[in-house]
Design brief:
A: 115 residues; 12 strands; 57% strand
Amino acid sequence: AQSVTQPDIHITVSEGASLELRCNYSYGATPYLFWYVQSPGQGLQLLLKYFSGDTLVQGIKGFEAEFKRSQSSFNLRKPSVHWSDAAEYFCAVGAVSGGYNKLIFGAGTRLAVHP
Amino acid sequence: EAGVTQFPSHSVIEKGQTVTLRCDPISGHDNLYWYRRVMGKEIKFLLHFVKESKQDESGMPNNRFLAERTGGTYSTLKVQPAELEDSGVYFCASSQADTPKQYFGPGTRLTVT
């Protein structure tokens, strides 16, 4: 069955520190992969996506993610975290459904940033 | 370009009552999706419209939930009668034809007491 695992429910980092949020997926074919962020009181915003090609993808707000097929992973990284990055982050895989795509989400990782 | 909008932003109802959530997708987006996040768990797919047709409703929890998309524009999701376990945040998303990139609305927080 298709699934997404985000092993870390909560992560706390200091402002300026580096960040890596883990995501593992289970999917039978080459997946479409996404990272979304939800800030307090806001909707889901797309940070970045991987469809094909270069396995290192750049996103908004200085985030990047690397697709590693051998590890079934799509970890999100940022070299220096800002206080405004405090939010909940969701990894998702696009599952083909009748020729289109529904998203299967992980449980989310809530990021806290200490000054 | 306006994004996906949802109404209301928050609804509090009593068990047994009816609630209707509305989603307005981005103009021109044929695909419309409903998702739900319950009790801090993962966001789960409910159903998918292509224009006015239901493409996939495999995630709908039971027959208390009814989704419509008349005319292929906005969509409504009705819960009747509401139960306590229906509490959560209901997200709507839309996408253009033949692309997996979905744009999400801000969500409707439903509280059933």
